[in-house]
Design brief:
The complex is a heterotrimer of chains A (258), B (305) and C (320). Chain B is mostly helical. Chain B has eleven helices and two strands; from the N terminus they run ααααββααααααα. The longest helix of chain B is centred in the first third of the chain and has 33 residues, at 15-47. Chain C has one domain. The chains are: A alpha/beta (258), B mainly alpha (305), C mainly alpha (320). Chains in contact: A-C, B-C. The structure holds adenosine-5'-diphosphate (ADP) and magnesium ion. The site of magnesium ion has 3 residues of chain A, from helix 1.
Chain lengths: 258, 305, 320
Amino acid sequence: MLKLENIRKSFGGLKALDGVSFEVNPGEILGLIGPNGAGKTTLFNVVSGIFPSDSGSVFFQRKNITRLPTHQIARLGIFRTFQNPSIFEAMSVLENLMVGNHLQGRAGFFSAIFKPPWERKEEQRMREQAQAVLKGIGLSDSADAAAGSLPFGKLRMLELGRALCAEPHLLMLDEPAAGLNQRETEDLTNFIAGLRAKKITIVVIEHDMSLVMGLSDRVAVLDQGRKIAEGAPQAVQHNPAVLKAYLGEEDWIKSLRR
Amino acid sequence: MPKPPFPCLEAGVGWHNQLIQYLVTGITTGAIYALVALGFTIIYNATEIINFAQGEFVMLGGMIAVTMLAGLGLPLWLAVILAIAATMLIGLAFERLAIRPVRKASVMNLIIITIGGSILLKGAAMLIWGKDDHPLSAFTPAPPLHVFSAVVTTQSLWVMAGTVLAVILLHVFYERTITGKALRACAFNPKAARLCGISVERMILFSFGLSATLGAFAGVLIAPITFTSYDVGTMLGLKGFCAAILGGLGSNPGAILGGLVIGVAESLSSGYVSSGYKDAVAFLILLLMLYFRPAGILGKRAEKV
Amino acid sequence: MKRDAVIWAALTLLVFTLPAFVHSPYYYSVLIIIGIFGIVVLGLTMLIGYAGQISLGHAGFFGFGAYFSAVLTTRFHLDPWLAMLVGLVATIVLAFLLGIPTLKLHGHYLAMATLGLGMVLQIIFKEEVELTGGPTGLTDVPHLKAFGMVFASDQKFYFLVWIFLLVLYGLSINLVHSRLGRALRAISSNQTAAGSLGIPVNRLKLLIFAVSAGYASLAGSLYAHYLSFVNPSPFGFLVSVKLVAMVVIGGSQSLWGALLGAGLLTALPEFLAVLQDYEMLVYGAILIVMMMFAPQGLAGILAGLHEWVKNRDHKKNAQA
Ligand SMILES: Nc1ncnc2c1ncn2[C@@H]1O[C@H](COP(=O)(O)OP(=O)(O)O)[C@@H](O)[C@H]1O
Ligand SMILES: [Mg+2]
């Protein structure tokens, strides 16, 4: 489904990605872990076209998307969330979701200003779709609230919902549980597990090991811009290279062993 | 706008003879642009704000000097010092009253606020001094010098010498004094500066004062050449900004270089191309720089703009 | 959407009932100028308030429309409506081309680039003397005519300008409440996130820049025909600033707020004769004070009041 070949990306002298290759299979949930600064977010940014890689190629469903601009990559069905929730704060919760719907509509400039009947129908349809997702993420009560006024946990859900509105084939989640409390994390885990049924392929970056290990079919580990391990969650957990990468981060090791 | 001090050259002088004249004129106005650009840079470095009121400091310097000299009959040196001091106070007041309360505002709001300040100062100046041009007598009444085929007024020399002096003092200030170093630290990393016990608020205030001082100095220097009036600040401010961008926003040497380049380019184009489009030169340079090299000539890195 | 439709209807009613009470040509002339600036400001609000892109050069596009109308009608004897249309298309194309490099910039850099564009346009108006008449400008721009009517009197022109405004206002309301309107607001909030959802960020910024320039151009054409002369002075930096101030003071997040801003900043100096010499001073002070205490503009203040009244009623009802 998604295939990365030898991706390199440096910022100044810093090699954020140093020749990373791996593949994501259709329908699976791939956990992407690694210490802070390993290059995980950078990898998402390269795939979603936010900045181009220095070298290497990205293929999606056999199509080379390495040099495509962000919005065209989205057209292919790749959507993501951000490590810092990037919701549109001044817009209402429902409007945020309807922006997620953007690619489901086709009204252009002239239909926007003259509002022919089909445009009204399309608006109605987009609103209904968004409302359905809104219900799914449990935010129906805040539909008209300014998104910026939501508590942090709900922001994460909103951002996830916004990506779902876009009906992704591939969904990339960047630390979706960061900043959430225990209960919120559990709800989120269940919610993501529920997406599997919808045949959405997911790559999830996460530090919460119970979440990663519980959800993932496979786990890939990045360290200092390189992939140091890949495989079934159990195997990766005991991989010496992985343990070494986390050396000095005792809490992590504990959580890995848990 | 600055007029060439002696535009009337004898007929039949070759283009290369005029060239020296144009260069002299260009460097004189360029020096003023450089001072204005330095003012922008100082505030930008401390706050990341572009102070659209910068040109008004130049206007105020010139106008207050005129009042002190012609109105109150003070000696020149005292008039100059008082004009600069008064403008500095206005700069400090501007920061305290209009900028500090809204430090966290959006870029758009900050732009509007400094533009508002500029209009306010201009409006006040119009009320006080009216709409007329005001002359300021040259610092020294000596006759102009002849350098090769060019005529150089003594005031031109004052402008050049004054600018050099200001640049040297600024350099010494940044490199040798605690306040100067603190100011640089703030520009480099405000958070770290605060951790080291530097009061960022005080430094921002200081940057406005310093910037107003430089602007006023420029205004006093140029007033004998161009006359001065309540509305000279707008164009000088905008040209100074072009210079700051050309040199690389945030770079002091860049500001100086940018000012000189724009001054000379204007002077040459008004001499050899068309005097009408002279004012467009600075803006065309500004646009080309923003489009193709937003970091400027001496900008360190291609920052996200 | 509903609220905007109500405001639009109320404004329409106002526009057509006002002539029953207003008889002095002077008041009409003020209303006409408000309408003309109102048209520019409608477009600029979509650019600044919705898409989050500042422009300090829109007086240049305003002038471009005015000069196209004046030059084509006086020098080439084109039909005024045709001239207006040619000016509109030309301005949109120009804005589109200039927008390509300009809109890649952000924040202060964008402000300066648009400022530079505006300055250069004004200098062109001044210097292309053979075409534009230079600093003195062009006179004898013909009146607009339609349906056997000549829009010569202030009252007739008032209707013309405000009908233009109402139509454009209606279209703008539709636009901001559409899929594209939401996309624009998303862009203004977070370009990266907007792009990641499939919104063609650069293309939409260009579109709205060109559209807002088009509004300015139409307003410029009307301006030229109203005054029947043009010169470069109303198309400079200070007018660009004034336009932005109208948007921001009115409240950049709403179209009606911006119209309010246009009305206020045009009418205030006109009606307060005392202000004459103090105009600039007061104007600068208003800008600063508004940005300090009401960054959401008049619309923000009104919305806050509305909210407050609603809450108060709510409480009363709850107590009852
Ligand atoms: N836009 C950027 N500019 C400069 N350096 C960056 C940028 N993005 C990431 N980096 C650097 O690249 C490295 C990898 O960062 P990142 O991909 O965010 O790591 P992770 O998400 O695994 O914690 C870090 O050292 C980070 O500082
Ligand atoms: Mg990360």
